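seq:
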Amino acid sequence: MKRKVSSLVFLLTAISIALGAFGHGSQWPKHVRADVAGLAPDTIRLLALVWYWVSGTMLVFGLLLLWAWWRMRQGDRSPAFLAWLVGAFYCVEGILGAAYLGPFFLMFVVQAVALCASVWVLSRAADARSGPRVCPPSA
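struct:
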């Protein structure tokens, strides 16, 4: 049961990270472009590029996590490092974002904790199923 719940948490977190890309990207034309309207045109184009780059990165992270989830469901534990990496990145970014920009960014910490906790439970469940590891005798 714990494994199924953890798998579902992993899946939903991966989907929320991927969908976050669209929420992020939609903010440029609605809100951000008006806020930077007084800047030089080259600066606005650069900011737009970076803004959409971040959206694309969120989408890629989410898609990689969906792939990792799929592979882990098939019994391959090697993609778990992707979840740990994205989780660590989201945790650091969320803490710094909350400290400098406001509590909204704590959502990234929540996603990171959900992702890392689910991977931890899934890894432990896989270890329990495979039994103890026996090292070959040394020569």
